[in-house]
Design a protein that fits this description.
The complex is a heterodimer of chains A (about 120) and B (about 110). By secondary structure, chain A is mostly beta strands. Chain A has no helices and 11 strands. Chain B is mainly beta. Helices cover about 0% and strands about 50% of the residues of chain B. Chain B has no helices and 11 strands. In chain B, strand 9 and strand 10 form a beta hairpin. The model of chain B has no long low-confidence stretch (mean pLDDT about 95). The chains are: A mainly beta (about 120), B mainly beta (about 110). At the A-B interface, strand 5 of A face strand 4, strand 5 and strand 10 of B.
């Protein structure tokens, strides 16, 4: 069974940092792009970042460029999101998601999400 | 950035009826569109991609279509079941980054 389990969400002050983790199991992790998608409370979905199979290619939505960094450890079947200089507008549930086809473009498996709250 | 506009925002439908959801792209995305279903408190679920292929395990009452222009897409849910009441999002993957989602359509019980 495919599983994605996020962790690391917390309450953090504006300007603070947080590192999210996503542990994958039940599939060949090294074959798949992985993404982070977020959802602010009561709002829609927003793609945040993705990373290719060997970690050599990353992409970000403009609003997080220079502040967030996506990475992966294939030995640990895990993907990470380092979030720095956090703002109130980064408050959201953060999901990690798997692309099924190797192109980083759609999401066929999702984690349960982890809540990040940025507030003083 | 490609903007996706979904309509209507809310659709009230009786069980057993059909629902037609629309997604319009600000420029052509070809066939590179997907639909997701999200129920309260749950992660989204991939329903349709490509834009007519159902994801694994998705019932045949869900169907997707697209216009030749690559800007107009429709998700149709035939004979709505109780488990189909949810929010549906479209997403384009033609021109990225960024990958973008529409604002969602809530399908509620009439």
């Amino acid at each position: 069974e495919v599983q994605l389990v996020e962790s690391g969400g917390d309450l953090v002050q504006p300007g603070g940092s947080l590192r999210l983790s996503c542990a994958a199991s039940g599939f060949s992790f090294t074959n798949h792009w992985m993404s982070w998608v977020r959802q602010a409370p009561g709002k829609g979905l927003e793609w945040v970042a993705n990373i290719n199979q060997d970690g050599s290619e990353e992409h970000y939505v403009d609003s997080v460029k220079g502040r967030f960094t996506v990475s992966r450890d294939n030995a640990k079947n895990s993907v990470y999101l380092q979030m720095n200089s956090l703002r109130a507008e980064d408050t959201a549930v953060y999901y990690c998601a798997r692309d099924p086809f190797g192109y980083g473009t759609i999401f066929d498996q999702w984690g349960q999400g982890t809540l990040v709250t940025v507030s003083s | 950035e490609i903007v996706l506009t979904q309509s209507p925002a809310t659709l009230s439908v009786s069980p057993g009826e059909s629902a037609t959801l629309s997604c319009r792209a600000s420029q052509s995305v070809g066939h590179d569109l997907a639909w997701y279903q999200q129920k309260p408190g749950q992660a989204p679920r991939l329903i349709i991609y490509g834009p007519t292929t159902r994801a694994t395990g998705v019932p045949a009452r869900f169907s997707g279509s697209g216009s030749g222009s690559g800007t107009e897409f429709t998700l149709t849910i035939h004979s709505l079941q109780s488990e189909d009441f949810a929010v549906y999002y479209c997403q384009q993957f033609n021109n990225w980054p960024p990958l973008t989602f529409g604002g969602g359509t809530k399908v509620e019980m009439k």
